[in-house]
Design goal:
Helix content: 40-55%
Low-confidence stretches: none
Number of helices: 11
Largest sheet: 6 strands, parallel
Shape: globular
Length: 324
C-alpha cells in the first residue's frame, strides 16, 4: 500500500513495508538514480517516504513507476535495473499506469511487459488468432511470442508449439552447407532454441522436442500441413517471400494461435524481391481477427545504447536512401 501527498512542486509517496522499500530503492539508491535520469526528476528517500520533485508530468510518471515497482515487489517478483527502466517506459502513457502489467509465468521466470507496446502486444496475442509483431531487433517481439506460446502449451490450451523461420537470410538454398538437414538449419533457428531454454529447463525442452510437442523447422517444411491446436510462430518473417507468407498463414487450423514477427526494413531477400511480411501487413490490414502491433526503438530492451544506435541509423536513413 502507498499514499501520495502534494506540497507545491513536490509530491510525496509513502510505502508500508521497510523491507520492500529497500528493494525499491536498490543498492546505494541505484534504482532511484535510473528513474531520475529517465524521467527528469529528483527522488529523495526518507525512510518509507519518497519526495519527488520536477515538472508536474514527470512527477506523476515517477509516482506511477514507483507504485508499479513496489506492487511488483509486494507480489514477490524481483526488481532490478531492467525492471526499473521498464517501469519508466510504462509510465509514458496514462493507460500504462496500472500496477499490474501483462505477464507470462514460465517454469524458469516470470516474463512481463516492459514497455506500453509490449503490453499491447501480449494483450493482442491473448485476444487474436493471428498477431503481427513488427519492429527493430531487441524489442522483445519474438521472445514475448515464444513466452506466450509456452504459456499456452503448459496450460493445455494448445497441444504443441511450432517455431519457424526462413532458413537462410538469402533464401532457403541450404544444400551447399555440410551435414544432415538438422545440422544445416539449426544455426539459423538457434535464437528460438535459446528463447525456449531461457523459459523452460533444458531437459524438459529436449523431451518435448523429441516427442514432437515442440517443433522448430524452416518455413519450407510447413507446406501442405494444417497446424491445428498449436501455437505457431514465424520469426524473421521479412525474409519470407509473399508466396511463402501466404502458404504459412493459410496453415492456420482449428484451435491454433499464430504470431508473425519481423522488421520489414531489414529484409535480406535479393534486390527487387518483395518481402512477404510487408505484403501481408498491407493485404491483411483491417481483417477481423488479425492484430498488428508496431514496435519502435523506444521498445528496445537490450543494452540502453542499442535504442540510441537504432535511432542514429533511422535518422541517417531518413536523410539519404539506403545503398542498393
Amino acid at each position: 500500500m502507498s499514499e501520495q501527498t502534494n506540497a507545491g512542486d513536490i509530491e510525496h509517496i509513502d510505502f508500508d513495508d521497510n523491507r520492500l522499500v529497500a528493494g525499491l530503492s536498490g543498492e546505494h539508491d541505484a534504482h532511484l538514480s535510473i528513474l531520475e535520469d529517465a524521467l527528469g526528476v529528483r527522488i529523495d528517500p526518507r525512510g518509507n517516504r519518497f519526495a519527488v520533485s520536477g515538472p508536474p508530468s514527470a512527477r506523476m510518471r515517477a509516482l506511477a513507476a514507483l507504485s508499479a515497482l513496489y506492487a511488483r515487489l509486494h507480489r514477490g517478483e524481483g526488481v532490478g535495473p531492467a525492471e526499473v527502466r521498464a517501469a519508466a517506459k510504462l509510465s509514458e502513457t496514462p493507460q500504462s499506469i496500472p500496477t499490474v502489467t501483462p505477464s507470462v509465468k514460465t517454469p524458469r521466470r516470470l516474463i512481463s511487459a516492459r514497455t506500453p507496446n509490449q503490453a499491447a502486444y501480449l494483450r493482442a496475442l491473448d485476444a487474436h488468432d493471428l498477431t503481427f509483431g513488427v519492429g527493430p531487433a531487441g524489442t522483445g517481439k519474438t521472445y514475448l511470442a515464444v513466452a506466450h506460446a509456452v504459456g499456452l502449451l503448459l496450460s493445455g490450451q494448445v497441444e504443441r508449439i511450432i517455431l519457424s523461420r526462413p532458413a537462410l537470410e538469402a533464401g532457403e538454398r541450404i544444400g551447399f552447407l555440410p551435414g544432415d538437414m538438422k545440422e544445416k538449419v539449426d544455426p539459423f533457428l538457434r535464437p528460438l532454441y535459446d528463447a525456449l531454454h531461457d523459459m523452460m529447463h533444458t531437459d524438459y525442452v529436449e523431451r518435448r522436442i523429441a516427442s514432437g510437442d515442440i517443433e522448430i523447422a524452416p518455413i519450407a517444411f510447413m507446406r501442405g500441413r494444417t497446424l491445428a491446436r498449436s501455437a505457431v510462430i514465424l520469426d524473421e518473417a521479412q525474409n519470407a517471400t509473399p508466396a511463402q507468407m501466404k502458404m504459412f498463414l493459410t496453415r492456420l487450423g482449428e484451435g491454433a494461435h499464430m504470431a508473425v514477427t519481423g522488421d520489414p526494413s531489414q529484409t535480406d531477400l535479393p534486390a527487387g524481391e518483395a518481402s512477404g511480411l510487408a505484403d501481408a501487413l498491407g493485404v491483411l490490414s483491417g481483417v477481423e481477427g488479425v492484430a498488428d502491433v508496431r514496435f519502435t526503438a523506444g521498445d528496445v530492451i537490450r543494452h540502453p545504447l542499442v535504442s540510441r544506435i537504432i535511432d542514429a541509423y533511422d535518422k541517417r536513413d531518413a536523410r539519404s536512401p539506403r545503398p542498393a
